[in-house]
Amino acid sequence: MTVRFTLNGVPVSVECAGSRRLLDTLRGDLGKTGTKEGCGEGECGACSVLIDGEVVDSCLVAVGQVEGRNVLTVEGLAGPDGTLSRLQQAFIEHGAAQCGICTPGMLLAAHVLLQRTIRPSAADVREGLAGNLCRCTGYTKIIEAVLSCTT
Amino acid sequence: MCPAPVTAVGRSVPRREGADKVTGRARYTDDITVQGAWSGRTIRSTIARGAIRSITLDPAFDWSRVVVVTADDIPGDNVVQLIREDQPVLAPRGGEIKHKEEPILLLAASDRATLEEAATHVRIEYELANPVFEIGSATEVFSTVEITKGDVASVERTADLVVEREFRVGLQEQLYIEPQGAIALPEADGAFRVVGSLQCPYYVHRALKRALKLTDQQAIVVQAETGGGFGGKEEYPSIVAVHAALLARKAGRPVRLIYDRHEDLAATTKRHPGVIRHRTGVKKDGTLVFQDIEIVLDGGAYCTLTPVVLSRAAIHAAGAYSCPNVRIRARAVATNTPPNGAFRGFGAPQSLFAAELMVEHVAEQLGGGVSSVDLRRKWMLRLGDTTATGQVLTESVGSELVLDAALKAATTFQPSNIPTVRRGRGLSLVFHGSGFTGSGEKKLSGTIAMEALADGTFRILTASTEIGQGTKTIFCQLAADALGVPLERVTIAPQDTSLVPDSGPTVASRTAMIVGRLVQEAAAEIKQRLQRERPPLRVDKSYIQPDSIHWDEATYRGDAYPVYAWACTIADVDVDTTTGEVRVTDLVTAVDCGKALHPVMAEGQIEGGCLQAVGWATIEEIKMKDGGYQNDRLATYLIPTALDAPRIRTVLIENPYSRGPFGAKGIGELPMDGPAPAVIAAIHDATGVWLDEVPATPEKVLAALNGAQRREAAQS
User: Fold this and answer.
1) Which CATH number fits domain B440-542: 3.40.50.170, 3.20.20.70, 3.30.365.10, 1.10.287.3510?
2) What is the residue-averaged pLDDT of chain B?
């Protein structure tokens, strides 16, 4: 089938089985390899993307489900000229990305959190990022990076 | 006055590959597209011990679409090149199976569907044999270590108090978020290029040469961006790479072999579990008389790096303390479980866990108002003291500095105000040897190169890998300052064995300290030569053991490590007495790192290591069934989330080491050592019960609490 949706602000259409995992369509068919596969069963959050502003694990979503919807991946966070977003910049400055494999998903979860909560507390940030596993940082630097974007 | 020159070392400059990582541009192994590549997979044993009776490819399936590799297809030696020659690349027909998930057969196909279907048409029949799963019933010994200082037997009777305890430590999975993976590409002249997620390019290089019978030039290993390692990508990638290359060789085309999480959890190496027994003798005033320690680690079915893990466990077993009489007897045994291997800390977290809790037990039994902190102050190794191996500590001994700093940084303790939740605080003091053990660095003689290029830039050539810990950034900082040039003028070559020399593996807290020092020395030499020569120039630098370091491998006497890094950790825990759940609420750690080359990255390493240790101490439990891991999915093997993680505060203490680059010592593994004993001590502080084992799962905590209650009831 043909699936049409908006990816990072650009309309795309893909020919594939509607049951194909969104993760595979993004990485394989559309070459957006910024979205990572960590477990393939919705436990680690490395494949997090936003569908109409909601964080989802793209390994658990069939591509047919995003027909007509807006999908945002890590590739869509920087400005059109490549300028890093404030959050991306903060991740670099605060040492929130170490090995970097959880970073794309972590950035998207944090992005939503900052859009929804005007002045999140450290506890809010922990809650908001609880679906995204990181094994390198102990989360401290990630939380600091997100909180630095609230003032 | 002139402004001070802007230096790079000591500043938290942006991570070299940071922008690539926050934009999704960074290319990890599975992100790399290779035209015409097939996918591979591994068929593994379903039994723990026995022999392969037959391997049958179902004739009803069309095998022309699939490439099948067995042990018969290995052109070189059927051995995973490491310490011992015991582990086959693929179990041969008729050969022995020693553990579940042992690789037997490899398949590759153009698409995943064919591959998965093919896998269902392979039948393997076995002759079953009796497996050994418990340390206690193991008969095969991989290695032993004995360390003797003074004479325990002759002073035993002079002790006023002898305390005996047994400690148990569990398996742990590294759980890098990017699973293992490699892509093998056949090239001209019989060469194979392998791109993969790995820590040690030259380990993989040696493994490929051996199994595929390749020359130095025919084996090319390239590290892709790597999503975490923690030791898990030290030795295991050799297996993945050789398997991928065997498939590529037979298929005559590139093959990708990327593990899914389930396979990664089920088949790859874990932290060695073990049993550690201590007998400690003291005088009435707490003076340490002797330490008698026995360590048994479970190596699993094959040797892997077990003897080296055991060695580090034994050397750290007496803890950060000075005792005149020490006897350490350590052995690693074989069981029919998947092989255990490298994991951050490499045996030291296991033995230090026991050593630290022993301080608590002795303090408790001595009574008389002597706290465990008092005992640590009395016992701790100080400048001029001698370790268990007879090493005299001549510089950079941070024991007291870290203890004072952690105590100062800890917040005022607030008891819990929830009736069913008890709060407690625990402390630990640990040391960790930086660099390879004993003569390891001398034998290895790691090499780097540096080039001054005609365009005015400088390039570092090293096989040391970036796995998140900051190698690329720190090496560039060291070079820039040693050259006296802006950071932007220094670059680092890709970790590709056809380009860079063998700097040794990226392990053992050695990269910043040992290899970083070579970078600094090479840069200083280039700077000097540029005064009289013109670029391009190249300088190669290899490690030369200083004459002052002496080590006797046969007797385990001497300078076990060039220097030690030190840490004191204070953990606060909440124990829910109704559920048994332990939550670490606050963690302070003071670390003597010599010099913080990049303070934010140093803190990041320490915080990440501390949380990994908190996970090991509380929730990361692997349950065994019939020699396999029962919880081999992320839904059942849990690691701490942002909600589980305590607030972690790091105090960096700079207590320079004369031979470290700008004074730095290795700290990659140290943070894995201290939190587990601090957490167990905190659980005791909260509840009055001792667990003496990790992980302290809710079941174990509840059982201990109930046991204590029953004892109280029986006494009243």
Assistant:
1) 3.30.365.10
2) 97
